[in-house]
Inverse folding.
C-alpha cells in the first residue's frame, strides 16, 4: 500500500530503471525509452497514493491504473515486481512464451494490470468507464490513466477528453508523459501538437504542469489531483525519453530498441550497479 | 395478417425489462432514439451514459465498466459500430469483457438513407473476433428473447437489428429462441434454406412458392451466426442434401460464409448463397432494395432450383 517516502520512491525508481534495461536487453526487444520516462511517475503513484492490494490484485474497490501507452510495459512490470504483485523472477518472462509479462501490458496475463493495452488512444476511454462505474457504485476509488504525448495524436483520446469533462468525472486522473519522442522521430517532426495544456484546459480539464522526474513535484501533483473533484484532472509531466541512461536520453533510436551487451553494462554502471 | 414490428423495438423492450438487474447499464452515441435504447434512458437516466457522437470512446467506456462488474449494452447504427471495430477487437474481445454491442439499421433493407448507412459487412467482421457471439434475429420477439439472455452470457456479443417492420413469427414462442440454436420453421427434405434477419421472411415466402412446384424446403432461422449451430447444419445436410443461405449482407463472410466453411469440412453438399453480391447499395425503398440486390423470395426460389439441380 501507499505511504513511501520521497527517498524510498527515488530508490525504487532507480531499481526499476535497472530492471527496464535488463528486461529489454534480455528480450532484445521492447521499449526502454518510454519506460524510463514514465518510471518516476509510476513509482510515485504506487508508492504514494494508489489504493491497491498486492495480495488481492482483483479487489473490487481498488483504484485502477491504466497504462494506455502499453508498450512501456517494462516500467510497469518493474513497479509491479517492487510492489509484490509479481516476482522479480517473473520479469524474466518479458516477451517470453507463456510469460505473465506479455509484450504489452495485459489484464488477462499479469496480476495488477487493469487494462489490456497495446493499441494507442484506448486507455483514457477505458479509464472513463472505470470512473463512471466507481461513481455508480458510490465508491471513492479513482481511475488513474497514463498516456504518452505522441499518443494524444489519436483522435479518440479527444472523444474521451470531451466525454469525461461532460460527465464531470472528478475521479478520473490522467498523467501525460511528455517525453517529446514517438516511434519514428521527435513529436515536433511527426505531428506538432502546439499548446497541449491549452487543449486540455479548453476541453474542461483541470491542468497542472510538472517536472516528471522530480519526485517531490510528482507527489505534490498527485495530492493536487485529490483536490479536484468536480472535473477530470491532467498532470502534464515534462519528461526525458530514456531518462537515467545517458545514451538513451532524448534519443529516438531507443523508443523501441534494446541495449546491446556493452550498452547494458554502461547503463547499469550509470544506474549505480557495481560491476 | 400477422403482427408487424421492428427488431429494434424488441431490443428496446428487452433493455427495459433487464433494468431490474442493477448492473445493467446502457451506452449511447446520440442514436438512442433510433436503436430504441431511449426507453431505458428515460426510465433509468442514472444508468445511461451518453457518449455523444463518439463510437470509439463508447466501446471502451463500456469495456471499462464491464471490467468493474457492470453489464454494458452499447448501441448505434450497425455501420457506425464498424468505426470502433479495433476498439471492439482489442478493448473488448481480446480481454473477453462482456460488452453487448447492438448495431441497428443493418443491411440494405435500411433503405432510403443510402449506401453509407447500409452495413453489409458487420456480421462478417464481428464473426472473425474470438469470444464474440454474433446474432441477427428476424423479429421483435426473438430479438427480445436473445437480448434477455445476454446478461448470463459472460462474453461479448454483437447483435444486428433492423429499422423497418417485418412480420412477427415468435409471439408466444419466446422459449424456442436460444442463443446458438437454429430454429426449424418449415419441414421439408428437398432443400434447406438457412436464413437470418429480414431474409427469414423472404425464405418462408419462397418455401410457399416452391411447395406449389412440389419442392419441399426446410426453412431455418439461423439467428445466431456465431457460435454456429453446426449440429443442426450437419442434420440439414444429411436430410436435405442441398443448402441455400439467405441474408441481407454481403455474400462474403456472413451467414453464407459461415455455413459454407462448416459444410465444406464436414458433410459437403451443394450450397447456393443469397446475399449482396460484392457491391454497395443505394437509396431506395426497403422492398426495392431487396429486389435490386437479388434478395427477394423469387431469387431464393431460383437459388433453390439451381442447388437441387446440382445435387448428385
Amino acid at each position: 500500500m501507499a505511504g513511501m517516502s520521497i527517498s524510498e520512491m527515488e530508490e525504487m525508481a532507480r531499481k526499476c530503471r535497472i530492471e527496464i534495461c535488463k528486461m529489454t536487453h534480455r528480450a532484445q526487444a521492447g521499449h526502454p525509452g518510454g519506460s524510463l520516462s514514465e518510471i518516476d511517475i509510476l513509482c510515485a503513484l504506487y508508492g504514494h497514493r494508489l489504493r491497491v492490494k498486492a495480495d488481492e490484485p482483483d479487489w473490487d474497490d481498488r483504484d485502477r491504473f491504466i497504462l494506455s501507452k502499453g508498450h512501456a510495459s517494462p516500467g510497469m512490470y518493474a513497479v509491479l515486481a517492487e510492489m509484490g504483485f509479481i516476482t522479480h523472477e517473473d520479469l524474466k518472462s518479458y516477451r517470453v512464451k507463456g510469460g505473465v509479462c506479455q509484450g504489452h501490458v495485459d489484464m488477462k496475463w499479469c496480476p495488477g494490470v487493469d487494462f489490456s493495452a497495446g493499441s494507442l488512444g484506448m486507455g483514457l476511454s477505458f479509464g472513463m468507464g472505470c470512473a463512471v462505474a466507481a461513481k455508480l457504485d458510490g465508491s471513492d476509488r479513482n481511475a488513474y490513466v497514463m498516456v504518452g504525448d505522441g499518443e494524444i495524436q489519436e483522435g479518440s483520446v479527444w472523444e474521451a477528453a470531451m466525454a469525461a469533462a461532460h460527465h464531470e468525472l472528478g475521479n478520473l486522473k490522467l498523467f501525460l508523459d511528455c517525453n517529446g519522442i514517438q516511434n519514428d522521430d521527435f513529436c515536433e517532426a511527426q505531428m506538432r501538437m502546439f499548446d497541449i495544456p491549452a487543449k486540455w484546459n479548453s476541453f474542461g480539464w483541470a491542468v497542472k504542469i510538472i517536472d516528471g522526474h522530480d519526485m517531490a513535484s510528482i507527489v505534490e501533483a498527485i495530492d493536487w489531483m485529490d483536490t479536484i473533484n468536480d472535473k477530470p484532472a491532467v498532470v502534464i509531466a515534462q519528461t526525458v525519453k530514456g531518462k537515467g541512461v545517458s545514451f538513451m536520453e532524448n534519443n529516438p533510436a531507443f523508443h523501441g530498441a534494446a541495449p546491446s551487451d556493452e550498452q547494458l553494462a554502461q547503463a547499469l554502471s550509470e544506474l549505480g550497479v557495481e560491476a | 395478417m400477422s403482427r408487424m414490428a421492428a427488431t429494434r423495438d424488441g431490443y428496446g423492450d428487452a433493455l427495459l425489462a433487464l433494468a431490474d438487474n442493477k448492473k445493467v447499464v446502457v451506452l449511447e452515441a446520440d442514436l438512442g432514439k433510433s436503436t430504441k435504447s431511449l426507453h431505458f434512458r428515460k426510465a433509468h437516466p442514472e444508468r445511461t451514459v451518453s457518449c455523444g457522437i463518439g463510437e470509439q470512446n463508447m466501446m471502451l467506456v463500456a469495456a471499462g465498466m464491464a471490467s468493474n462488474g457492470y453489464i454494458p449494452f452499447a448501441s448505434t447504427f450497425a455501420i457506425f459500430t464498424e468505426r470502433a471495430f479495433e476498439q471492439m477487437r482489442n478493448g473488448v474481445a481480446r480481454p473477453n469483457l462482456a460488452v453487448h454491442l447492438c448495431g441497428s439499421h443493418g443491411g440494405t433493407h435500411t433503405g432510403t438513407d443510402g449506401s453509407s448507412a447500409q452495413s453489409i459487412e458487420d456480421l462478417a467482421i464481428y464473426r472473425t473476433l474470438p469470444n464474440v457471439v454474433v446474432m441477427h434475429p428476424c423479429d421483435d420477439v426473438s430479438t427480445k428473447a436473445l437480448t434477455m439472455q445476454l446478461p448470463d452470457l459472460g462474453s461479448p456479443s454483437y447483435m444486428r437489428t433492423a429499422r423497418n417492420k417485418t412480420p412477427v413469427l415468435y409471439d408466444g414462442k419466446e422459449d424456442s429462441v436460444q442463443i446458438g440454436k437454429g430454429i426449424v420453421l418449415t419441414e421439408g427434405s428437398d432443400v434447406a434454406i438457412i436464413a437470418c434477419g429480414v431474409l427469414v421472411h423472404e425464405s418462408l415466402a419462397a418455401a410457399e412458392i416452391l411447395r406449389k412446384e412440389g419442392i419441399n424446403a426446410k426453412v431455418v432461422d439461423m439467428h445466431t451466426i456465431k457460435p454456429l449451430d453446426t449440429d443442426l447444419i450437419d442434420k440439414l445436410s444429411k436430410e436435405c442434401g442441398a443448402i441455400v443461405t439467405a441474408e441481407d449482407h454481403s455474400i462474403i463472410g456472413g451467414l453464407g460464409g459461415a455455413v459454407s466453411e462448416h459444410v465444406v469440412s464436414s458433410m459437403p453438399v451443394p450450397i447456393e448463397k443469397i446475399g449482396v453480391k460484392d457491391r454497395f447499395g443505394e437509396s431506395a425503398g426497403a422492398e426495392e432494395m431487396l429486389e435490386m440486390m437479388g434478395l427477394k423470395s423469387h431469387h431464393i426460389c431460383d437459388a433453390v432450383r439451381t442447388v437441387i439441380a446440382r445435387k448428385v
Summary: The two ends of chain A are 33 Å apart (CA to CA).
